Amino acid sequence: xxxxxxxxxxxxxxxxxxxxxxxxxxxxxxxxxxxxxxxxxxxxxxxxxxxxxxxxxxxxxxxxxxxxxxxxxxxxxxxxxxxxxxxxxxxxxxxxxxxxxxxxxxxxxxxxxxxxxxxxxxxxxxxxxxxxxxxxxxxxxxxxxxxxxxxxxxxxxxxxxxxxxxxxxxxxxxxxxxxxxxxxxxxxxxxxxxxxxxxxxxxxxxxxxxxxxxxxxxxxxxxxxxxxxxxxxxxxxxxxxxxxxxxxxxxxxxxxxxxxxxxxxxxxxxxxxxxxxxxxxxxxxxxxxxxxxxxxxxxxxxxxxxxxxxxxxxxxxxxxxxxxxxxxxxxxxxxxxxxxxxxxxxxxxxxxxxxxxxxxxxxxxxxxxxxxxxxxxxxxxxxxxxxxxxxxxxxxxxxxxxxxxxxxxxxxxxxxx
Length: 417
What we know:
Elements: H1 2-6, H2 9-17, H3 28-40, H4 44-56, H5 60-71, H6 80-90, H7 95-105, H8 108-116, E1 135-139, H9 142-149, E2 175-180, E3 184-191, E4 194-198, H10 210-216, E5 223-233, E6 236-237, H11 240-243, H12 256-259, E7 262-272, E8 275-276, H13 282-291, E9 298-300, E10 304-306, H14 309-321, E11 326-330, E12 341-348, E13 358-364, E14 373-381, E15 387-393, E16 400-402, E17 414-416
Parallel strand pairs: 1-12, 7-9
Antiparallel strand pairs: 2-10, 2-11, 3-4, 3-5, 5-6, 5-7, 7-8, 11-12, 13-14, 14-15, 16-17
Helix pairs in contact: 2-5, 3-4, 6-7, 6-8, 7-8, 9-14
């Protein structure tokens, strides 16, 4: 009941232990020792015993944050950028160096350690240490995309102190168009016979899609590529709701790869045969990508050239007809900038269908939203006048909900509150 009240395990622990007459004794070295012991313990019962002992020593506030740390639910509104600035001040390092190192490392803790040891200049892209994915800025119309692409600066500088290039004119500088896929963003690292796949949040997903690793294990080149895993049967792209069935599986399923076959769509090359190519132009990285002999399970994303906003609009309609979300427009002169969202990549998506729904239930959110009703259950009526209910959450405090609706023959509806 206490958890239902807060929808937050840490807050529930705080209320349950409030009033306990225990002096605060938990120190940071104690936490380090505890987490190491939990990591080394074999089996759930041993780990549980260690946590029970630790919580038995905690005050209410200490238990609250210990539980939040263990469950990864520490939502206190502290953005990573603020932590980067704090590290820069603490170790007297330029903030830009901290940000660049953190983009390549993908680990703010490791960045802080290197800043303390004055080792930031040695940071580079290394296989099996995933870097943050390059991001695209959104636009809602082909005309606005075309205008933004040719309004001035698009490519980010190769280094933090270079002057970024600009387009000379729209007529002499066409843009590249790729379909925006509705799949799972994937960074594949392959060296020798070792293959590891990472998701957008840099978590390893190799075991979820073992056929991808098996397919590229004998590849002649050692590579790190950026791409998208799609559910595909033949030439048809499967709905994302089908691909979701394969997520969260930690052990292989003998029949899942046949039930929901996948392919890896590769669209960028970050590292090849011992050399980082992040600072090479996209056109050069693409040529290198095309020189590699890929197995049948891996395909290269199709690239189309647009010379006008009308061609962008036509390409968008064609991408949607192929079952994809929309388009990503790219500057062929752009470098690959991990973690950055600029004008070198611009994605084009349009509003989808809408539904009339009825709110039939609501729950409190988590963290900063613990006092706000942000998790809803909606109901829709089908042709037989039967109500179907499905859960949905408000994301990032925006009152716009996106969800998959598998019960209706409609394309991925969105609901505006």
